[in-house]
Design a protein that fits this description.
Blueprint (H helix, E strand, L loop, with lengths): L6 H11 L22 H15 L3 H13 L33 H14 L6 H17 L17 H7 L7 H10 L4 H8 L6 E3 L8 E2 L2 E2 L7 H10 L11 E3 L11 H5 L8 H8 L1 H12 L1 H15 L41
Antiparallel strand pairs: 1-4, 2-3
Length: 349
């Protein structure tokens, strides 16, 4: 029997339904903040550019931050939460994210500017999407419109990151299956893997390809000379807390290009999962195609980023617009961001 006081429950059910992948490919729009915060994307772009001028490596971190957000509970900025209202560790504490994930300070700077200009309007999830796009522009001279209107989630759990992020030890089929679970095709998986052309990796992500205990080894699909170089950087005693890093693309670590695909046939894919793109014939054909045509890869990479940015989004009255990206709004402020309609217009009623 229906009773009074159930609208909140009904809304919660509707919001939960929108977390189903088959239902979340719409409801975002380019220019979402044109009326409520017309300088939103400019302010984010300025924050990213300022950080990039000091450290070009932050761009790769921001791209990865968006990816790690979207693959866990959807693109809801849950990866930014430093505390979990329900207790326990958050996504950013999980092994795939700690200590390697970076760019949080850039998002915080952008959010601070936005709160000054357009209080309680622009979600942290949208800031992540804009910042990733701006990082791609700075490193690869690629610009694409970003549909916006995402809302911020209020849950962040360590186990969710462990269960959803594809580790560097995945086989080709495991990669295909994991991306399929997120509504992304095998081709889009290969496209997005090309982001490994920028940034650095901690030794822990590939140490088992070059060391077996104290014994030097050369994993299948890894060049002996490249393995020797990596061993000179990463000790056999490497653990998750070893803070030594190496460029994923030694030739142009701060340039978003198609060099990643050119390195794979030379047995210079840093991760086991990178080499898996060559082991599978269908995936290898895509690798060769993208290696041969950088312009095509960049165009399709941008489209794949847009599609990834739609994974399990919360929109409308679902979720919230956080006042500070690292914490959920206090209960007294929980509804501050709930009066924004599907066109980014703040309701006055």
């Amino acid at each position: 029997m229906a009773t009074e006081g159930t609208p909140g429950l009904a809304l919660a059910v509707v919001c939960a339904m929108f977390l189903l992948p088959v239902l979340t490919m719409a409801q975002l729009q380019v220019g979402f903040y044109l009326r409520t915060c017309p300088n939103a994307e400019t302010l984010v772009r300025q924050a990213v550019a300022t950080a990039f001028a000091k450290d070009a490596g932050v761009a790769a971190g921001l791209i990865r931050l968006h990816f790690h957000d979207c693959f866990v509970r959807g693109c809801d900025a849950s990866v930014l939460l430093s505390t979990n209202p329900g207790g326990g560790k958050t996504e950013r504490d999980a092994i795939p994210n700690n200590p390697s994930l970076r760019g949080f300070d850039v998002i915080d700077a952008a959010k601070a500017s936005l709160e000054q200009s357009c209080p309680r309007t622009v979600s942290c999830a949208d800031i992540l999407a804009f910042a990733a796009r701006d990082s791609i522009t700075l490193t690869g001279n690629v610009f694409y419109p970003v549909p916006a209107g995402r809302r911020d989630g209020s849950i962040s759990q360590e186990q969710d990151a462990l269960d959803n992020l594809p580790p560097p030890t995945f086989t080709a089929q495991q990669l295909i299956d994991r991306f399929k679970n997120k509504t992304l095709t095998a081709e889009e998986m290969v496209l997005l893997s090309g982001a490994h052309t920028v940034g650095r990796s901690f030794c822990a992500s590939f140490v088992n390809r070059i060391w077996n205990g104290n014994t030097p080894i050369v994993d299948a699909g890894l060049s002996p000379s490249y393995a020797a170089l990596l061993r000179s950087l990463c000790p056999s005693t490497t653990t998750q807390t070893t803070l030594i890093t190496t460029a994923m693309d030694p030739g142009s670590p701060n340039v978003l290009d198609n060099n990643y695909y050119k390195l794979l046939p030379r047995n210079m894919g840093l991760f086991f999962s990178d080499n898996q793109l060559r082991v599978d014939g269908n995936l290898n054909a895509l690798v060769n195609r993208f290696a041969a045509n950088e312009t095509m890869w960049k165009e399709r990479f941008a489209a794949a980023m847009v599609k990834m940015g739609r994974i399990e989004v919360q929109t409308g009255r679902c979720g919230q617009v956080r006042l500070k990206c690292s914490v959920v709004n206090p209960s007294s402020s929980a509804e501050l961001g709930s009066a924004v309609d599907e066109e980014g217009v703040v309701a006055t009623s």
